[in-house]
Amino acid sequence: MEVALNYPSVLKKIIDEGGYLPEQVFNVAETGLFWKRMPDRTFISEEEKSAPGFQPSKDRLMLLLGGNATGDFKLKPLLVYSSENPRALEGYAKPHLPVIWRSHRKVWMTVTIFHDWFTNYFCPAVERYCAKRGIANKALLILDNSPNHPLNLNDLSKTVRVEYLPKKTAALFQPMHQGVMTNFKMFYLRRTLKQLVDAADGEGKPTVREFWKLFNIMNGIENIAESWGEVKLPAMNGVWQNIWPGCINDFTDVPAAEPAEKVIRDIVALANEAGFEDIVEEDVIQLLDSHDEDLSNEDLMLLERERASEEVDVTETPATPLQLTTNHLSVALSHIDQVVDILSANDPSRERSLKVGQLLHDAMGCYREMYKEKMRRKQTALNASLVCKTEPSSPPM
Question: Model's pTM, two decimal places?
Fold first, then answer.
């Protein structure tokens, strides 16, 4: 208790002596996520429990989430899954996923995975961030005393210092465990239910059961990235209150974080709209708490057998990488232009249609540049081909 009470002042001294700005002080922590789990009292959960074999609701992944004390820099999530090459990822380039993809058959964060993350992602990411902000390239990373966190991290970087929380104080001081993880999981569940409702809304659409059966790990990855994006700057900064109250800002010009009560009400409303009429707020809270459960040995064995049947052998049957051709890009950009034209011609609010049109134009900017670059390359290759055809052949010797 004495160590816990004194630790904020100990940390403050470390920060002052190191000259660290709030932008340069970071925390990361692990959390489990059952990415395909619905509340217990839904017909999906009830049917799954009565079915033999592997239960999708027990398909668990591990996430490493974190950011800096200012709250303006959230790190790309590190995801640990039981399979290295699930079929749903065929054709996608893993380095370009919205998460850092790693695998471990028991879905554990290992010393090796953490070491790789620290060296090859965290330190370079901090360097880029500091350069962008015009501040010194240095950082203080605060970790709990998990056995999965290597003790030699301070020997691996000249610019990053690692400080370990005193044992048994993570629940009190670990910033990421002061609400960020719960907020993220609420956003994930709300987003997933919203997709389910939208997908099954209307004639000719799949049923709730059909949608859920097709919901795969790639859908989960996309929802993880989007839900992590929903965690706002005030929330990322506010969770440092217990450990470093001096870094807390009064955000007057930034939208406040959504109250948890509102998000839970949204989840209940979406669940009811999806056909889960019996779901109440207590069911949602129970589901959010369940992500901390560990899998039994039997569950792990079933999971391993299930993953083995779905694992793609990339050495024997390498998937053809997905490609965006100039034709794909041309069609997509044309559709966006048509959408803007329809809104502009029919929306009585010119201000609104202009705003949406500009947002769509800006959002598609990267694809427009890609299209232009591909066309430039195609024209260059065509010109070179024409030159070769028109050049006179050398006279015979």
Answer: 0.83
